[in-house]
Design goal:
The complex is a heterodimer of chains A (324) and B (416). Chain A has 324 residues and is an alpha/beta fold. Chain A has two domains: 182 residues, Thiamin diphosphate (ThDP)-binding fold, Pyr/PP domains (Rossmann fold), CATH 3.40.50.970; 128 residues, Rossmann fold (3-Layer(aba) Sandwich). Chain A is 38% helix and 20% strand. Chain A contains 13 helices and 14 strands. Chain A is globular and about 60 Å long. Chain B has 416 residues and is an alpha+beta fold. Chain B has three domains: 75 residues, RNA polymerase II/Efflux pump adaptor protein, barrel-sandwich hybrid domain (OB fold (Dihydrolipoamide Acetyltransferase, E2P), Beta Barrel); 66 residues, E3-binding domain (Dihydrolipoamide Transferase), CATH 4.10.320; 216 residues, Chloramphenicol acetyltransferase-like domain (Chloramphenicol Acetyltransferase). In chain B, the strands form four sheets. Chain B has a six-stranded mixed beta sheet with strand order 9-16-15-14-12-13, with helices on both faces. A four-stranded antiparallel beta sheet of chain B has the order 1-8-6-3, with no helix packed on it. The radius of gyration of chain B is 26 Å and the shape is elongated. Classes of the chains: A alpha/beta (324), B alpha+beta (416). At the A-B interface, loops of A face α1 of B.
């Protein structure tokens, strides 16, 4: 297996799917001639030409609406958001149209659209560009929500997203673009709704996704030196979500921690805690804790931002707390 | 001064568990007010204050098992003092009557130290700790919690179980090699999972095994048309909404009428003789969280349908709450077990002594029935299976009983 950057793996998925299916098109701000703000679409305009790689005007509601229409008519648009924080302008299109058209048309109009781009804190992008969007999206029936944590997962999940007939929200963490990982050679996809146990352990289960996975693995490494074995579950997709893997793990470890960058209050960790107590109550030996972002607009200041987002130390403290 | 003692709740009762004090040392109590919960084999009941006054001199700690008539505490009126031999020392709980050979080694050995509470009466314990304790029939009040805020967690219950095992009588020759210390956290389940039975399940296991092995069972199945019974029930429930008569109530009442006509079904075999009881006492099998209980409606003979329904429903409710008194679950002369609500069409039940027969009731279902003129109509039918003790009941006798039962349920005015 070759070692690749996270953004290279995403690019590979786009290229492979565009070559496999002529209906796959890319849309977004500065993705063509400029080759993308995070260089994900580097070389694609040259390779596939202006009919398949569209530079859009700076109007998120407009080009998301065009993508939805194109999807209904048979294309499979992959829309890049320069950042998911810009997608807030298009939330009417995403939530009131993309998520609901299949239902409102009585099943006649699938909307096979993928919206992808970076979201999340940790790169000093300040309050307005550091939003985590997964809780908003996962809360809306009709959307699938994907948050890969490794290059291999990103490639396999994006290929599945493009082939899915439903709107798929594909959320890339900006801190992951330059991370490296082994990516299998040749054709492969990763199904939605299958969590990946990134590390096995018997003492406590950390349920996380996206950037949280690496934090959890680093913390697990340190805790292992003290004889504490942490199990790290990467949900990979929040909708659909592989709860059985979570419950089975908690039934063994009896303790669970939810971890994410998104703000804590009504974040996805609340759903994780609720699901565990509903389905594995008798197996719990401690409360389910959440390690999450502070409930504040993200500070620009480097030191304040670091204080507002999860890190290894906070995970280790939470593990100690549930093992007390 | 009034002495509160461990009451004798039934002929067979020799000891009881003080589950928890509902009042504390020094609390004022009113006559008739519940002051403690005690448990016998199958039931948990409240002890009421025999007089008003102040609760003093608690001698028995929560969780302790003591013989009947043991003084538990005293109720004092103003100016009265505790008897001198009671210095407030509580009997420590001990599950094994034999004294432990030596000090239990484990630091977390059970002690009489009160379990942590949230300031009220609820003991702080994790869900997992509660589950393990329930599986082993251990009262959490006996266990000292070592978790945050003194919460009882898994390791505390496991340590308690270990300590109990250590305190149990050991074989004369001690093993030379010390056993491996258990890992702090249970190893991943490589082998089968082993779960101790709670007390109720253990008793159920023993009694059903004994009944099935010692009583020669045979089974008779009959289909009964329920159209008229259902119509009557609907009418009754419309006319008086204060009490909903269930199908089960109708069946119990019909059994009572039929048993009066066939006293041998109501009789029992005992040491080569037939014993005819002085009443029709119908037990109703009730599934509860911990296992199976039989609630007994006493003296059904001559009782109206409404009266039987009232008593049966009250008993079933008590059974579910674990509050049946020993007398309310013994002495049945016949038993009804109904799995109709689960859609079970037909099944055979194990006789519940001292009764000689048990009626297994299936679901009432609408099915096509060929009438005498050859036409087919949809009718509500129910299948019942009578398990009979052949030492008491012969096939023909059991069949006649079922014919009578069928006749009554198909012509329910006969119940009135």
């Amino acid at each position: 297996m070759a070692v690749k950057l996270f953004r290279e793996a995403i690019r590979e998925a786009l290229i492979e799917e565009m070559e496999r299916d002529p209906n796959v098109i890319l849309m977004g701000e500065d993705i063509g001639r400029y080759q993308g703000s995070f260089r994900v679409t580097e070389g694609l305009f040259q390779r596939f030409g202006p009919k398949r790689v569209w530079d859009t005007p700076i109007s998120e509601p407009g080009f998301v609406a065009i993508a939805i229409g194109a999807a209904i008519e048979g294309l499979r648009p992959v829309v890049e958001m320069m950042t998911w924080s810009f997608a807030l302008l298009a939330f009417d299109q995403i939530i009131n149209h993309a998520a609901k058209i299949l239902y409102k048309s009585g099943g006649a109009c699938p909307v096979p659209i993928v919206i992808r781009g970076p979201a999340g804190p940790g790169r000093q992008l300040a309050a307005q560009h550091s939003n985590s969007v997964e809780a908003w999206l996962a809360h809306t029936p009709g959307l699938k929500v994907v948050l890969p944590s490794t290059p291999a997962d990103a490639k396999g999940l994006l290929k599945t997203a493009i082939r899915d007939n439903n709107p798929v929200m594909f959320i890339e963490h900006p801190r992951l673009y330059l991370t490296k990982g082994e990516v299998p050679e040749g054709e492969y996809t990763i199904p939605f709704g299958v969590a990946d146990i990134k590390r096995r352990g018997r003492d406590v289960t950390i349920v996380t996704y996206s950037r949280g996975v690496q934090i959890a693995l680093n913390a697990a490494e340190q805790l292992a030196e003290q004889g504490i074995e942490v199990e790290v579950i990467d949900l990979r997709t929040l909708v659909p979500c592989d709860w059985e893997t979570v419950f089975n793990s908690v039934r063994r470890t009896h303790r669970a921690i939810a971890l994410h960058d998104d703000t804590r209050y009504v974040g996805f960790g609340a759903e994780i805690a609720a699901q565990i107590q509903e389905h594995a109550f008798d197996y719990l030996d401690a409360p389910v804790l959440r390690v999450a972002g502070a409930d504040v607009p993200m500070p620009y200041n480097r030191h304040l931002e670091a204080l507002a987002i999860p890190n290894e130390q906070r995970v280790i403290e939470a593990v100690r707390e549930v093992l007390a | 001064m009034h002495t509160i003692i461990m009451p004798k709740m039934g002929d067979a009762m020799e000891e009881g568990t003080l589950v928890r004090w509902l009042k504390r040392e020094g609390d004022p109590v009113q006559e008739g007010e519940p002051i403690a919960e005690i448990a016998t084999d199958k039931a948990t009941v409240e002890i009421e204050a025999p007089a008003s006054g102040v609760l003093r001199g608690i001698r028995v700690a929560e969780g302790a098992v003591v013989p009947v008539n043991t003084p538990l505490a005293y109720i004092l009126q103003e100016g009265e003092e505790l008897p001198s031999e009671t210095d407030g020392k509580a009997t420590a709980p001990s599950a094994t009557p034999a004294p432990a050979p030596a000090e239990p080694a484990a630091a977390s050995a059970p002690s009489a130290a009160p379990a942590p509470t949230d300031g009220g009466t609820r003991i702080l314990a994790s869900p997992l700790a509660r589950k393990i304790a329930a599986e082993h029939g251990i009262d959490l009040a006996l266990i000292k919690g070592t978790g945050p805020k003194g919460r009882i967690v898994e390791r505390d219950v496991l340590a308690y179980i270990q300590a109990q095992k250590a305190a149990a009588p050991q074989p004369a020759v001690a093993p030379v090699v010390a056993p491996e210390p258990a890992p702090a956290v249970a190893a991943p389940a490589a082998a089968e999972r082993v779960e101790s039975l709670n007390r109720l399940r253990l008793i159920t296991a023993q009694r059903t095994t004994e009944a099935h092995q010692t009583i020669p069972h045979f089974y008779l199945t009959m289909e009964i048309d329920m159209e008229n019974a259902l119509a009557l029930r609907q009418q009754l429930n419309q006319l008086d909404e204060s009490l909903r008569i269930s199908i089960n109530d109708l069946i119990v009442k019909a059994c009572a009428v039929a048993l009066e006509k066939h006293p041998v079904i109501n009789a029992r075999y005992q040491d080569g003789q037939l014993v005819y009881p002085n009443g029709v006492h119908i037990g109703i099998a009730v599934a509860v969280e911990q296992g199976l209980l039989v609630a007994v409606v006493k003296h059904c003979e001559g009782k109206s349908l409404r009266r039987i329904a009232q008593e049966a429903q009250a008993l079933i409710q008590k059974a579910r709450e674990g509050k049946l008194l020993p007398d309310e679950m013994t002495g049945n002369t016949f038993t009804v077990s109904n799995l109709g609500m689960f859609g079970i069409e037909q099944f055979t039940a194990i006789i519940n002594p001292p009764a000689s027969a048990i009626l297994a009731v299936g679901a009432t279902k609408r099915i096509p029935v060929v009438q005498e003129d050859g036409s087919i109509v949809a009718r509500h039918r129910m299948k019942v299976t009578l398990s009979c003790d052949h030492r008491v009941i012969d096939g023909a006798v059991g069949a006649q009983f079922l014919q009578t039962l069928k006749h009554i349920l198909e012509n329910p005015l006969l119940m009135l």
